């Protein structure tokens, strides 16, 4: 009778292990397939060669002044147009885009001031034209902006559903601030 009970216990334990082992194998297989699909999605983004376009016009310098603390400040009216549709693939969640004024000073080889930004949630919104003043203050610590040449650079960060984030930019040159405060 003792031997019979022992055999039944071993048999029941084998059934439990059998179920546990099967569940473990199924979960491991599912996670492996999911990881493989994520890796393929991420790698497929490397096949996309985007060709975004952008143009920015400075319509007006609204004011250009020296603040009480000695810093220069500029307010501009801008027309920003861009076609970023080629940045979107089936793996793109959204695109963060910002326009920056970039210039050199004797103290710094690169000064970068963000003027405007936005989040593009879908390809349908990736072709846009906006008429705006700079959303953020264009200030230089010191009086380095008079007569200064600067670039307007449209930067973007592509945020994928899976995989690594990509960033790039379009540099538009040929802009100059006035010689005198207004």
UniProtKB/TrEMBL annotation:
Membrane spanning residue stretches: 21-43
GO cellular component assignments: signal peptidase complex
Pfam families, sorted: SPC22
GO BP, one annotated term: signal peptide processing
Subcellular location as annotated: Endoplasmic reticulum membrane
Membrane topology: Single-pass type II membrane protein
Sorted UniProt keywords: Endoplasmic reticulum, Membrane, Signal-anchor, Transmembrane, Transmembrane helix
Annotated InterPro entries: SPC3
Similarity field: Belongs to the SPCS3 family.
Protein name: Signal peptidase complex subunit 3
Organism: Escallonia rubra
Origin organism lineage: Eukaryota, Viridiplantae, Streptophyta, Embryophyta, Tracheophyta
């Amino acid at each position: 009778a003792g031997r019979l009970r022992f055999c039944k216990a071993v048999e029941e334990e084998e059934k439990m292990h059998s179920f546990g082992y099967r569940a473990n194998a199924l979960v491991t297989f599912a996670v492996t397939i999911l990881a493989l699909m994520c890796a393929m999605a991420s790698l497929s983004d490397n096949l996309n060669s985007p060709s975004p376009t952008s143009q920015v016009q400075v319509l007006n310098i609204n004011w250009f002044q020296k603040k009480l603390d000695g810093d220069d400040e500029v307010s501009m009216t801008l027309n920003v147009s861009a076609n970023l549709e080629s940045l979107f693939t089936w793996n793109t969640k959204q695109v963060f885009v910002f326009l920056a004024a970039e210039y050199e000073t004797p103290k710094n080889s690169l000064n970068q001031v963000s003027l405007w930004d936005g989040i593009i949630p879908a390809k349908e919104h990736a072709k846009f034209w906006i008429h705006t003043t700079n959303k953020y203050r264009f200030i230089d610590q010191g009086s380095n902006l008079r007569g200064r040449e600067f670039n307007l650079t449209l930067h973007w960060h592509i945020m994928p559903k899976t995989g690594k984030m990509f960033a790039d930019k379009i540099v538009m040159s040929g802009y100059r601030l006035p010689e005198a405060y207004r």
